[in-house]
Write a structure and sequence with these properties.
Elements (H helix, E strand, L loop, with lengths): L1 H16 L8 H30 L3 E5 L3 E4 L2 H7 L3 H10 L4 H6 L4 E3 L3 H15 L4 E6 L7 E5 L2 E5 L12 E12 L2 E6 L5 E6 L2 E13 L6 E11 L5 H5 L3 H4 L1 H7 L16 H26 L5 H4 E6 L6 H12 L4 H11 E4 L10 E3 H7 L1 H21 L4 H7 L2 E2 L5 E3 H7 L3 E4 L2 H9 L3 H6 L4 E3 L6 H7 L2 H11 L20 H26 L8 E6 L8 H17 L8 E6 L7 H18 L8 E5 L5 H7 L5 E4 L11 H7 L3 E4 L5 H8 L5 E2 L4 H10 L3 H7 L1 H11 L12 H8 L6 H20 L2 H12 L6 H13 L6
Parallel strand pairs: 1-4, 1-12, 4-11, 12-13, 13-17, 17-18, 19-20, 19-22, 20-21, 22-23, 23-24
Antiparallel strand pairs: 2-3, 5-6, 7-10, 8-9, 10-11, 14-16, 15-16
Helix pairs in contact: 1-2, 1-4, 6-34, 10-12, 12-13, 12-15, 14-15, 22-33, 23-24, 23-30, 23-32, 29-32
This protein binds 5-bromo-1-(beta-D-glucopyranosyl)pyrimidine-2,4(1H,3H)-dione.
Family: Belongs to the glycogen phosphorylase family.
GO molecular function: 1,4-alpha-oligoglucan phosphorylase activity
Protein name: Alpha-1,4 glucan phosphorylase
Amino acid sequence: MVSEAKSAIISKMTLSVGKDPAFATDYDWFLACALAARDRATLRFLEGKRVTASDGKKRVYYLSLEFLIGRQLTDVLSNLSLLDVFRAALEDLGVDYERVRSAEPDAALGNGGLGRLAACFMESMATLGIPAYGYGIRYDHGLFRQVIYDGWQEEYPEDWLSFGTPWEFLRTDVVFNVGFGGSVETYVTPAGITRYTWHPGEVVHAVSYDTPMVGWRGRSVNPLRLWSARAVDPLRLELFNRGDFAGASSDQARAEAISKFLYPSDETPSGQELRLRQEYFFVSASLQDLLSRHRRIYGDLHSLPERAAIQLNDTHPAVAIAEMMRLLLDEHGLPWNEAWAITSATFSYTNHTLLPEALETWPLAVFERLLPRHLQIIYFINNLHLEAAKKAFPEEPELLRSVSIIDERDGRKVRMGQLAFVGSHAINGVSALHTDLMRKTTFRDLNRIYPDRIQNKTNGITFRRWLHQSNPGLTAILKEVCGAEVVDNPEVIERLAAHAGDSALQDRIRAVKLANKTALAKVIAERTGVRVDPAALFDVQIKRMHEYKRQLLNLLETAALYDAIRANPDADWTPRVKIMAGKAAASYVNAKFIIKLANDIAQVVNNDPAVRDLLKVVFLPNYNVSLAEVIIPAADLSEQISTAGMEASGTGNMKLALNGALTIGTLDGANIEIRDNVGNDNIFIFGLTTDEVSYRRERGITAGQAIAASPMLAGVLNAVSGGRFSPDDPGRFVQLIDGLRGADRYMVTDDFDSYYAAQRRVDACWNSGEPWTRSAIINIANMAWFSSDRTIAEYAREIWNVPVDL
Ligand code: GPU
């Protein structure tokens, strides 16, 4: 086996990379290994494809504008059971696997939780043997690279594709035309039926690239099919010949802009026309592709819902409802009712947020200019939908306003959430609380008209990447204590609970954690220059920078703790390292100020000799999947402190608890289900509940009360806004803090005291030693339910109607 791998790698190095192994760089070795691994994945993929086609199996299509994959080499090798073999082969060749692995750039085709969820789902679908395609965009540039300069975030373009990627196959035979703009022609057939033909004003080619997604033990391999935009004509020769070089390639630039950049906005639609072009581009290509596959195999389109399930990952691909209707009506000549029955039986939609500013809408003018025929279809859909609503609730004309796909208030808009809801047979939220809130708030009236459509599917994470690959030390313990089958069946992790009080096990768990923390401390020193003690409590908040996630609450507590330590330096403080990482959307001013505040506090605290090593503050730049893989196994405390009702689920919360971090958190998103699984005694819950948050919001209760009631809070707000941490620019944080003194939309001030108190409970528990490790073990033991295999099995059974044996 090892010798086979060795010759495969050498053969790739010589014949595909084109290098003499004696002169190969780490990146060359990565290429050779990836190409050798891809060969094996591809053989599995082709096998599976034959089976699916011949057995008439139903396929799942996961449409997502984001797939946040990260590095792939370890994932692919490990899932093919080849990791040890390749590691040994490289060692024989005198090459260090770690260096080879690290030479791979992250595929960062996503912003945060939503994109990472799509990547976990692709891996779980392949693991469960579900024939699935992921469809998305092959962005030339993924999420921007974050550099911290003088404490401020700067954004630089990300370049994962500049040297190509060894994982993908260009499918030269899979190219589709995607149209934009133009006009719609209406005519009446001799039989008296009105038909419509769209004449786009512009056409772009969608070219496809497939990347194999390998399931655990290579059970199946599914394609992730990403579309790249190409101009139909690369050059306008008549302009080129006249010397107008820029004009000659301007069509090309305009077309290729579609797949150039990932939009870096997270949960705030940018509303720009290019974004709608991206959405329609990949949706149209994907639907043309899957319809032509269906017709090739089954002939007739009426059987589509039995053979295909299409999942919309949030509303970003929701224009698919209108595009499917257009294809069935205009291109395939089906009557409306049949087209609608096929469409709504095939689609389902996942909602990932209820934040009002994050619900996607498009001004009618923009929509009409870009997609005139689709707007027409949406009007038709909406008329029928409103008729049905009127019939069901004749006494409630105002209900029509909330369920309409067209928002009639200030400037008419298409509401993509309503479109996705109306055109789907199943709509799901991503945690129990979130789904409950969907039924009560945003989709309340739609839920009354279609009461069976909303379901819950609590998110999950793939244990292969987030436990086995990233935390081999902990995995080794689990195999020994719970049995080797733990890597196939996470449910047996539960066996750990019986040993939670065993001091030998506790010692081993602590030793693994310490080793992981030592590794993280090294990364922290390399990237920030700050030296931290691996024996201290590692307190971690890693996620996109967002006001609702309340990094500011964490920083205010840090500032208050700093003051308390200075005031009483000889008390029995718990040595802590506060670790924060995350990117802010480039245009999100407050989020960028919060990053600056983190770095300013770090400057002051880390250089104050009075604090000694009791408190260190670290902002790690350029958070991404690869950095998460180092931070998560090293965390002691997981910060999940969003305002109740605002975090749809969270998935980092699951990764951290699975790796033995205790959670300090609000009753929000999946935190509630984590508490239900690990038990109240093994989690630090604080803060307002969802009901208390809405009570305050409804009464307009503002920050004044909380500030007046808490001298510590008043003090820390004054310190930050008074320039305590920004002596070079004392007014720097006045506006940020004034936001808390006024509306305080995210109720930071209301939760401050209860958060501070919860942190002191954390200190006490950490100082007690044994109970902390016990709790950590109980956390690990009770996380099996959060495997994305469980989540995907639920989608398969309850939404897609696809067989699955888990
Ligand atoms: N989420 Br909408 C994103 O990461 N990006 C988005 O644009 C939207 C939602 C997140 C939610 O904030 C998080 O709570 C959830 O766990 C995740 O999606 C996956 O469902």
